[in-house]
Amino acid sequence: MTPPNQAPVAAGPLIDARAQLAGAVEHLGVSDGVHRMLSISRREMAVSVPLRRDDGSTAVYEGFRVQHNFSRGPAKGGLRFSTAVDLDEVRALAMWMTWKCALVDVPYGGAKGGVSIEPRDHSQAELERVTRRYTSEILPIIGPDVDIPAPDIGTDERTMAWIMDTYSAAVGHTVPGVVTGKPISLGGSLGRASATSRGVAHVALMAMTSRGIDPVGATAAVQGFGKVGRDAARFLSEAGVRVVAVSDVDGAIWAGDGLGITHLGDHADSAGTVAGFDGAESIDPASVLTLDVDVAVPAAVEGVITAANADRIQARILVEGANGPTTNEADAILADKDILVVPDILANAGGVIVSYFEWVQSNQAYQWREREVQERLEERMERAWHAVVDYAGAHRMSYREAATALAVQRVIEAHDLRGLYP
Ligand SMILES: NC(=O)C1=CN([C@@H]2O[C@H](COP(=O)(O)OP(=O)(O)OC[C@H]3O[C@@H](n4cnc5c(N)ncnc54)[C@H](OP(=O)(O)O)[C@@H]3O)[C@@H](O)[C@H]2O)C=CC1
Ligand SMILES: O=C(O)CCC(=O)C(=O)O
Known about the structure:
Elements: H1 13-28, H2 32-39, E1 43-52, E2 58-69, E3 75-81, H3 87-103, E4 109-115, H4 124-138, E5 147-151, H5 157-171, H6 195-210, E6 219-223, H7 229-238, E7 242-248, E8 251-254, H8 261-271, E9 281-283, E10 295-298, E11 317-319, H9 328-336, E12 340-342, H10 344-347, H11 350-364, H12 370-395, H13 399-418
Parallel strand pairs: 3-4, 3-5, 6-7, 6-10, 10-11, 11-12
Antiparallel strand pairs: 1-2, 2-4, 7-8, 8-9
Helix pairs in contact: 1-3, 1-13, 3-13, 4-5, 6-7, 6-11, 6-12, 11-12, 12-13
This protein binds NADPH dihydro-nicotinamide-adenine-dinucleotide phosphate and 2-oxoglutaric acid (AKG).
C-alpha cells in the first residue's frame, strides 16, 4: 500500500520498512485505516542548511527531521550526518525507531534526522556551524517533551552539546533533556556511549546460548568500527569470543586467532582506520559479512546484506547492530538457510534504552551510577529478547516478524487507549 501523501519509492529501506509493517498488520488483523496511519510519518520537516565554509565560500546541505509516531510519548531518534541521507531513508529510520521504542517499552514514539553532508570533509568549526543552523531550523519541532535527538552515523556527543546549547539559548534557559548522548559533564548518562554496543553483545551472547554455541572460543566478524561496532567487538572479545575480522570504510582486516580489540582501537585512533593493523591480514571489505564465523555483526549502514550476497553468508547468527542492514529479500534467503537473524529493533535497542535513562536523569538533574545503568539496560534487553523469542515460537515466525508485530501491537494499543483516531 502506498500512503496517500507520499510518492512511491522504487527500492530501499522505506520499501522494506513498509513491507515489514504490512506483514505485522496482516498478522494482527489491523484495519486499512490504521495501517495507512502507521505507514505515514506524523510530521516531516525538510530544511536547507547553508554553511559559511572556513575559506569564505558557501555550501548548502539538505536536512530532515521526521517524526513517525507520538502515540507512546515524545518522538525519539538519532541524527545522522552522511551523504547517503535522503527523506525516504530518514522516514524508514523514524518508523523503525517507533517499533524499537515500543518493543523495549520506553515511553517514546519514533523520529530520525539527517543532514546530507560528509563530515570527514569538514573542520570542527564547520560542523559546529552546520549543527547549530540545522538545530535552529528544526527548533520549532524539537524539545524534551516533543522530540529528542541523539547521536547516529557521523555525529557524536559534541554534536549533541551544540544542539543542546543552540536550543537552550533560543528558549532562554538550559534544557539538558532536549538531547541524549551528551557529554557526561553536561548531564549525559554514564554508560550511554557504549550502551548500543553493550546491548548488541548481550543479545549476541543470548542468541549463541540459544543455538547451543559456547561464546568462549566462538568466532565473530564485525562490519563497522564506529560508535557501535568498535565496542561491540570489544564486549564480544571480553566475553571470550574470537573477533577475527572487522572493517570500516577504508578497509578490512582478519586474524584467525582473533584481533586484539584494545590495541586495534588505539591503532584506529591514530591511523583513522582499522586498515594496516599489525598482525592482521588485509581482506576484501565485501567479504567481512560472508566469512565462516559463528556470528556476523553488521554495524555500519543499511542494505549491506541483499539478494546478491545473502546466499554466501556462512554465519549461524546475524546480529543487526546497524539499522536496516538486511533487505527483505535477503531475510527470506537467510531464513531458508536457517540463519538466526536478531533484528535491529531488538539488537541495537541498548542505545535508546540508555538514552531514556539519560533523559530521566537530565529531567531530574540527578546522575545514576554506571552499574545501575548497565543492570537496568541488561534487564530490559533480556525482557525484550524473551518476549520476541516467545512470540516467534508461539506464532511460528521469524524474530523480525515477531519483534515488529509485538511493537506494532503496542503502538496500536496506545492509539486505541488515547482515542486518536475514530
Ligand atoms: N550510535 C548509536 O547509539 C546507534 C547506532 N545505530 C546504528 O548503528 C549503525 C552505526 O552507527 P554508529 O556506529 O553510531 O556510526 P559511526 O558513524 O560512529 O560509525 C559508522 C562506522 O561504519 C563504517 N562504515 C560506513 N560505511 C561502511 C561500509 N560500507 N562498510 C564498512 N564500514 C562502513 C564507518 O567507517 P569509517 O570509520 O571509516 O567512516 C564507521 O566505522 C548505524 O546503522 C546506526 O543507525 C543503532 C542504534 C544506536
Ligand atoms: O538514542 C536514541 O535516542 C536513538 C538512537 C538511534 O538513533 C537508534 O536507535 O537508531
